[in-house]
UniProtKB/TrEMBL annotation:
It catalyses: hydrogencarbonate + H(+) = CO2 + H2O. The keyword DNA-binding does not apply. This is carbonic anhydrase. PANTHER family: CARBON DISULFIDE HYDROLASE, CARBONIC ANHYDRASE. Its cofactor is Zn(2+). It comes from Sporosarcina aquimarina. SUPFAM superfamilies: beta-carbonic anhydrase, cab (SSF53056). Keywords: Metal-binding, Zinc. Signal peptide: none annotated.
Length: 193
C-alpha cells in the first residue's frame, strides 16, 4: 500500500462520515491575521496551538525558513492577497530555533540533486543564464536576523499598506514559546481615514 492510497482511504472515510463539518469556516480569517512560518513538521500543530488559533482563525503561508526571498515572489504575493483580498489586518513572520535553513550547505544540495539524476552540466547552463543557484538555495546563520530581514522586506514593500502591523517572532519548536523579535505596532503609520 502506498502513502497516497493510505491517504485516499482515510479521505473516503473522513468525507463519508462528515468529519469535515467540525472544520467548516469561511475563507476570511476570523482573527484577521496572516502568518508566514517555516514548513518544519514540528510546527504543523504546535504553532497554531501556541498561538491559540483554531481552524479559520488565520491565513498561514509556509516556506523553508519563513523567508521572504524575493520582493515579487509567491510568498510576498500571498501576503499581499491576504491583506487586500482576504481581510488580514496584521502580518506575522514566525521563524523557529533549530531551523534546517540555518545549516544549509548549497554544495551538498547540488550533490544530492546530481545523485538523483540532475545532470551536473545543467548548473553551468544556469550560471551562464544568470541564475545564482547558490544564492537562491542559501539559508541563514541567525534566525533572529533572518526574521528581522523578512519583516523589513514585508513592512517596506512598496505595495504593502503602511497601516498594517508586521510582527516578527521566533518559536521554540519543542515548547511553543514565542519570542518577540519585532513588535509591528510600533512601526505602524497612522491611517489616513
Amino acid at each position: 500500500m502506498t502513502i497516497l492510497s493510505t491517504i485516499l482511504d482515510h479521505n473516503d472515510k473522513f468525507v463519508g462520515e462528515h468529519q469535515y463539518e467540525q472544520y467548516e469556516t469561511t475563507k476570511f480569517p476570523n482573527k484577521r491575521i496572516v502568518i508566514l512560518s517555516c514548513m518544519d513538521t514540528r510546527l504543523t500543530e504546535l504553532l497554531p496551538a501556541a498561538m491559540n488559533l483554531k481552524n479559520g482563525d488565520a491565513k498561514i503561508v509556509k516556506s523553508a525558513g519563513a523567508l521572504v526571498a524575493h520582493p515579487f515572489g509567491s510568498i510576498m504575493r500571498s501576503l499581499l492577497i491576504a491583506v487586500y483580498e482576504l481581510q488580514a489586518d496584521e502580518v506575522y513572520i514566525i521563524g523557529h530555533y533549530d531551523c534546517g535553513m540555518s545549516s544549509i550547505d548549497t554544495e551538498s544540495i547540488i550533490d544530492k540533486m546530481v545523485d538523483r539524476g540532475i545532470n551536473r552540466n545543467l548548473f553551468n547552463t544556469l550560471a551562464y543564464s544568470g541564475v545564482d543557484l547558490k544564492g537562491w538555495l542559501h539559508g541563514f546563520k541567525d534566525v533572529t536576523a533572518s526574521v528581522k530581514q523578512s519583516v523589513d522586506a514585508v513592512r517596506n514593500h512598496p505595495l504593502m499598506d503602511k497601516t498594517v502591523p508586521v510582527h516578527g517572532l521566533v518559536i521554540h519548536p519543542d515548547t511553543g514559546k514565542l519570542d518577540v523579535i519585532d513588535d509591528g505596532y510600533k512601526d505602524v503609520k497612522p491611517s489616513n481615514d
